[in-house]
Write a structure and sequence with these properties.
Blueprint: H1 2-14, H2 18-27, H3 31-41, H4 44-56, H5 60-69, H6 76-86, H7 89-121, E1 136-137, E2 140-141
Antiparallel strand pairs: 1-2
């Protein structure tokens, strides 16, 4: 019977019915198949439901394996919440190390690209002052920007990460 349900899960997966495939695999304790189906779905909601399932069933190893298998579709804020609330921080730490490494690399690349743009455009002129949008709720203005005369000189390198 398990093999027939496994075939059914594969058929669900081939027809793009990812959630049904994952549910069928979870019922039969075929967690590896469930993780593969969730990863192939490319759907963060399917992956998040699977992670929550592993937390509810106190399966820390499967939680860590799912983070590895479905890495591209897992949101860091969801992992942090689940890990912190349920004491899974040791199992989520490899995921966080990799995420921080990727983000640091991206920021470094942006900073390098921005510094090369500054060098090309450096002609001795003062850097332009960036106008920040004013947040508005309904008709009421929450914050108004300071008048231009009160702005201090801000070096463009300190705002390089905003671009």
């Amino acid at each position: 019977m398990v093999e027939f349900r496994r075939i059914a899960a594969v058929l669900y997966k081939r027809n793009g019915q990812w959630a049904q495939s994952v549910e069928l695999s979870k019922k039969d304790n075929l967690y590896s198949d469930a993780m593969k189906s969730a990863a192939e779905s490319s759907d963060a909601d399917v992956v998040e439901k699977l992670l929550r399932f592993f937390v509810e069933n106190d399966s820390k190893e499967c939680f860590a394996a799912c983070l590895y298998t479905c890495y591209d579709y897992v949101r860091p804020d969801v992992v942090m919440e689940l890990a912190w609330k349920n004491g899974y921080t040791d199992f989520a730490m490899p995921y966080f190390i990799q995420v921080i490494k990727e983000y640091t690399t991206k920021v470094d690349e942006l900073a390098k690209a921005n510094s090369s743009e500054e060098k090309e455009g450096a002609s001795g002129a003062t850097p332009p002052v960036t106008q920040f949008p004013t947040p508005v709720v309904g008709e009421c203005c929450l914050l108004s920007p300071p008048p231009p005369s009160s702005l201090l000189f801000v070096h463009s390198r300190s705002l390089s990460f905003i671009r």
